[in-house]
Amino acid sequence: MNLILLGPPGAGKGTQAKLLQQIYGFMHLSTGDMLRAAVAAETEIGLRAKDVMARGELMSDEFMVQITRDRIDQPDCASGIIFDGFPRTVAQAEALDELLTERRLSLDGVVEMVVDDGILINRIMTRAAEQPGGPREDDNDEALKRRLDVYHSQTAPLIDYYRARGKLKSVNGMAAIEGVASEIVDALALNGMA
Ligand code: AMP
Q1: Cα of 32 from ligand 1 centre, angstroms
Q2: How far is CA 79 from CA 28, 65, 116, 168, in A?
Q3: Alpha-carbon separation of residue 25 from 115, 179, 189 (angstroms)
Q4: Nearest to 31 by CA among 76, 61, 75
Q5: CATH code for the domain of 83
Q6: Please, which residues bridge with residue 113 across strands?
Q7: 48 in active site
């Protein structure tokens, strides 16, 4: 089963993806985590990504499609993928449709996690304060504001994109973690699959 978790920064996509990975064995594919690992390892990709991420801007579609293509071809993705943070633009969504079609894979559902902007800002500031190794470089006021703007202008159009294709399910991302998880399980009819 291949799923997309869609939602603004701080919506809890990573938390829910990790839970789904633990319960169902799908691979949690976070493009943000991949880029942060590259930044930490100071690879060429990391050097390119560092400033873009710190500003809260997006990496190019071409680049993101390329690293996602390489990642989904790894054997550990064969039992299903939970996309977290990809696609983030309509061009990326179109490219993902092609990547999946070429591999005869289906996209089984897209879960939109709905959260008010005010709650997101509080959550991210709490996350920044609690992060063991110090806050993420993009968890600060200015970058966060930019990330939210970018989400609304470039990523939110994906809600209509997937609704038009009959793939979209929306859940209340403001509930407690377990409540959100059970809404996702219901929305995707995952009950009994574990
Ligand atoms: P995330 O952890 O998903 O919030 O991603 C952190 C940052 O990585 C984003 O603010 C972007 O700078 C970059 N990034 C992650 N995924 C993508 C993507 N699909 N397209 C472009 N940039 C991305």
Answers
A1: 5
A2: 11, 20, 33, 22
A3: 26, 20, 16
A4: 61
A5: 3.40.50.300
A6: 171
A7: no
In angstroms, what is the span from residue 193 Cα to ligand 1's centroid? 30
Which of 16, 36, 59, 158 to mutate for ligand 1's pocket (most ligand atoms within 8 Å of CB)?
A: 59
Look at the block and give the residue holding tokens 């092609």: 98
Domain with 34 in it = 2-190
For the record, the structure tokens of 63 come out as 């680049």
pLDDT at 116: 92
**Ligand 1: nearest atom to the Cα of 88:** 19
Q: Which residues line ligand 1 (CB under 6 A)?
A: 9, 31-32, 35, 52-53, 56-59, 64, 85-86, 88, 92, 138, 147
Between 25-34, 141-150, 165-174, the lowest mean confidence (pLDDT) is in 141-150
Cβ-contact 117, 63 below 8 angstroms = no
Q: Record the tokens describing residue 134, joined without a space.
A: 């110090």
Per the structure, the count of domains in the chain is 1
In percent, the amount of the chain with pLDDT more than 90 equals: 81
Answer whether 0.85 is exceeded by the pTM: yes
Q: For residue 59, how far is its CA from the centre of ligand 1 (angstroms)?
A: 7
- What is the pLDDT confidence band of residue 17, given thresholds at 50, 70 and 90? very high
